[in-house]
Amino acid sequence: MLVRVASLYHWLQRWWLYASLSILTIGIVALGQPQLVRAAEWWQILIQGAQIIQLSNVSDAQEASLGAETNRSILNQVKLYRNPAVGSYIDSIGQRLARNSGRPNIRYTFQVVEDNAINAFATMGGYVYINTGTIKAADNEAQLAGVIGHEIGHIAGKHSLQRVRQSAIAQGISSVAGVDRDRIVQMGVQVALTLPNSRQDEYDADRRGLTMLMQTGYAPSGLPEFMRKLANSNSAPEFLSSHPAAGERATRLQNMIPAAYRNRTEGLNASVYKQNLRNFF
Hints:
It comes from Chamaesiphon minutus (strain ATCC 27169 / PCC 6605). GO terms for molecular function: metal ion binding; metalloendopeptidase activity. One of its GO terms (biological process) is proteolysis involved in protein catabolic process. By secondary structure, the protein is mainly α. The protein folds into 2 domains: 1-27 and 36-57; 60-162 and 189-280, no CATH class. 66% of the residues lie in helices and 5% in strands. The protein is built from 13 helices and 3 strands; from the N terminus they run H-H-H-H-E-E-E-H-H-H-H-H-H-H-H-H. A hairpin with a 3-residue loop joins strand 2 and strand 3 (127-131). Helix 4 crosses helix 6.
């Protein structure tokens, strides 16, 4: 029954669009030359509105396809760290966390960026990027897992998709321009690499990341400890500019940890972690 209702809804949606375009076509033909350009602009608004609606209802398969294209563009602007051991290590942590992300049905890809700046970011479709500087800055695996979980949280919350949609509305409809696939990918790259996350999205990704740590077995204190470390340091301006209010969030995260989880120690062994780093770098 639900399938029939959904099919009827999409049929009515397409019927409305085609009917509107047909009426608009008749109107354009009937209009004189002075009104032709204005009518054509309304045609563009109708078409672009349909694309925005599609963007706000993207399926997992469509998101994966857009994410793959966005990832290819991002890889033209960053340099990956070509060390299979590091890549495998990050992927193993990421895949464990992703199983508890709330969106385990999409394929997650974890990549290490050769950059000593402390930063991490994600884009739609399951793509997560961790700088080598972040791996080196963490004191233990739980802290690193906290950062990775936070970025997975952005994907689970569909934050990139929401921000691309907002950007499409602002840049597309306001300029009466169509939003084609290439434009969406360009906005996806911009969102991933240059635009800071909103405080609301950061809080949501924090909450999701903390939950993943607990459900995966890590000490949840890893995430607030890493945030507090960076908030008290001047060595991570890039991370703090794209992940605002780190100090406040560290306190907030610490208060969110249930009493039963506060004494967990999984992933806090600093000596084991440092030994791994010596093997990687």
